[in-house]
Amino acid sequence: RVQPVESGGGLVQPGGSLRLSCTAPGFTSNNCGMNWYRQVAGKEREWVSSISTGGYKSYADSVKGRFTISKDKAKDTVYLQMNSLKPEDTAMYSCKTTMFCGGYWGQGTQVTVSS
Q1: Residue of 7, 52, 64, 106 with fewest CB within 10 Å of its CB?
Q2: What pLDDT, on the 0 to 100 scale, is given for residue 65?
Q3: Cross-strand bridge partners of residue 46
């Protein structure tokens, strides 16, 4: 089971940056892809970004140009670098392995953008 664990959330001012990490032992050896999602309480979960086994990256329009997804194979970790953060980026951010690797969710990490 490739179980992701997120970290790196916190409180940041508008315009600031955060880097989220999603560590999943076995992620690399099992040729997994990873997806980032976010959810505000009471609203539907929103897809944010994905990275495939081959390194192909995709982004939601709402974060394109501000967020960057990457991975460190040696550390079995996927990162989400978030720049130029806006109050509307406030949410619980979670990562999920691709269905090929079971589609397992992490517990999430809270990001709050506020002055």
Answers
A1: 64
A2: 97
A3: 38
- What is the mean pLDDT for each group of 10 consecutive residues in the chain (115 residues)? 94 98 93 96 96 96 98 96 98 95 95 97
Nearest residue to 26 (alpha-carbon basis) of 5, 57, 54: 5
CA torsion through residues 17, 13, 4, 32, sign: negative
- In tens, the pLDDT along 61-93 reads 999 999 999 999 999 999 999 999 999 999 999
SS3 30: coil
Q: How far is CA 53 from the centre of its chain?
A: 15
Give me the residue label for tokens 């992620």.
27
Q: Which parts of 35-87 fold into alpha helices (H)? A: none
